[in-house]
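Team,

Forwarding the record for the chain on the shared tracking sheet. I've put the sequence and predicted structure together so nobody has to dig through attachments.
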Amino acid sequence: MDNFSAAHVSIPDLEIMSLTNESQFMLMFRAQPCENPLEKRSAIQGKPFSGWAMIDSGASSVFINEKIVQDFQLFKKKLEKPRCLKVIDGRKIDSGKVEYYVTINLKIFEHEEEVDAYVVNVGNHNLVLGMAWLKCHNPSIDWDKKSLVFSSPYCSKNCLHTSPIVKSGEPDLEIAATSELPPRYSEFAKIFTEEEISPLPPHRPYDCEITLKPDAVPRHDPIYSLGPKEDEELRKTVTQQLKAGLIRPSKSPMASPVIFVKKKNGSLRMCIDYRKLNEMTVKNVYPLPRSNDLIEKLRGAKIFSKFDLKWGYNLVRIREGDEWKTAFKTRYGLFEYLVMPFGLTNAPATFQHFMNDIFRDILDVYVIIYVDDILVFSKNKEDHKKHVREVLSRLQKHHLYCNLAKCFFSVEEIDYLGLIVSPEGIRVDPAKVVKAIDWSIPSKVVQVQEFVGFCNFYRTFIRDYSRIAAPLFYLTRKNHPWEWTEECATAFEHLKEALRSAPVLIIPDISKQFFLECDALDFATGAILSQFSEDNQLHPVAFLSKAMTPAERNYDIYHKELLAIVKALKEW
């Protein structure tokens, strides 16, 4: 409790605590209790919880509400010497002496760390982050905009995950990423089941069809070698899925091997390598929506709720008679799926078709859906409650389930499809900015391709993207010799900086006038699409940058500028 250590914030001596309005603002947080290895966990212990954290420069340290500790049965550690809790003038307050602290894994947006917190009665506040925490992280705080920037060396070195920019919220909104369902939606509690594995869904008209090409020849590939942890996860998953009726023993003449991928939290997920099956499958061409088209529907929205479907594709059955095609082999036997597994080429199209039909009459009105990511949006709180209720009722009717810990209710800013959406517009996800900034210098072509592919997703935020990235494009051309030149290094760092300083793009309003600026260089064209926003200032809607073909590079300057206009009009 006396020193700060890596990925762990300790609490210094408690002296004063001052809750003054001038020195505070609120942030949404999510926390996970750190386990007590000596104590058997009850049903509630270990569950994540969330709420509002108050940043207070007048408080001396980090404090957690004793009600939270009681409700979630957090493991309390006793202080060697109890400490008094005092206000700014030195007076002791009613909370009495502080005798305990707890250790939690604290997450504010994508900023994550372990932190110790004194257990006290802090009224309506769940968590108070005071001066000890502020000194340790030394964040840049804009008190007017209510934003906080994590950029200190301590954060980069010690915190588990870092997010450079965090915006304050409004505490009158509901909790985001919560472990408790808001009371007004309690009738839909069944949707947010805590079961670890999905029940077998019913057959529907949207069952996944696996139609093989006429010349397809069933084949079976050898089992892949697995490590001890993978083998343990394989046994566990197969046992669970057999018990739930999601798979069954098979006598199929074809079979695919098992592979494992790491989840974000480090655990393993069993997947099937269906590449050979996918090659011989007739493709379902049902379209997936373009992310840009979905985001444009959010114009004017002030409040958002997001629902993360639990078990995803497993909520859809395999068409009766096609189960044998999904067979996979393991050291424990040959099995086949009764539900749609991850990895099938037609899975995204099948699931999108299913979701579109369920929500068809309200799609783009107050809900948008990309496969299994559901976003509800509204212009005011009252409408939003009705909209959320309607969406939840349809999920319940169709036996679709959500992961409550990953759902967000009634927030003003939301992460959707890799972008941060708010009433002000869209911006790059700060977690992705951190990933770009920390990207190591490439040492081979495939690493350059990975970085360029990552940046391509955000190219609409980067002015003159093709011009900046040109040296990296050249480096990835076929038969181009590997040489990391000064131009490549400059482009690499320039793209990082462009992502770090990427502007907020407003969501276009088709009823208003657009402004188009175009330009042409020797090897690339560029354009900016803008509109006047509510502040009567011109703001960018999107940036466009296109590399010229060898033939286009021979155009004279006038035709190049005309080419820039033509490409912009084709894009927008």
